[in-house]
């Protein structure tokens, strides 16, 4: 067995690294600016409060969005179209993540009049997201027959009900 040096993971593209660095600098500047204005304790209190608000909104908006998506897809909706509610869930997640800039983005995502700012970004990301195929091409349909096997479990002496797999 020969020694193979570890392979370095590939670096993220430059625009992503630049955006991440700008986000960290903006969050740090907002934190220190607010801590200077109102004090460190109140700044931490704002972070904790927005996190709890984010969890509450996520619970409400997430359940509402999931129910709306389930109803949309069960009624024959097109999976390629985007059901409403995703922006509210994204806003709640932004509120949970600590940071004043992230909280501002989360609040903008929560209110319907300001969501229009993010619609273009959402469409751009949806267009660039690769499609997911389940199974090989041409083999998506499996012909079969459903057989009812009730009353065949004689080992338990139970003549009614479905057979259990143990």
Characteristics of this structure?
mainly alpha
Task: Give a short account of the largest sheet.
Answer: none
Q: Estimate what percentage of residues fall within beta strands.
A: under 5%
- How many E-type strands? 0
Uncertain stretches of 5 or more adjacent residues: none
Q: Span from first to last CA?
A: 44 Å
User: Could you tell me the radius of gyration in angstroms?
Assistant: 25 Å
Explain what this protein looks like in three dimensions.
By secondary structure, the chain is mostly helical. It has a domain at 47-128. Helix content is 57%, strand content 0%. The chain contains five helices and no strands. Helix 3 runs antiparallel to helix 4 (100-110). The longest helix has 35 residues, at 40-74. The two termini are 44 Å apart.
Task: Set out the fold topology.
Layout: H1 14-38, H2 40-74, H3 86-96, H4 100-110, H5 116-128
Please give a quick description of this structure.
The protein has 166 residues and is mostly helical. The chain has helices at residues 14-38, 40-74, 86-96, 100-110, 116-128. It has a domain at 47-128.
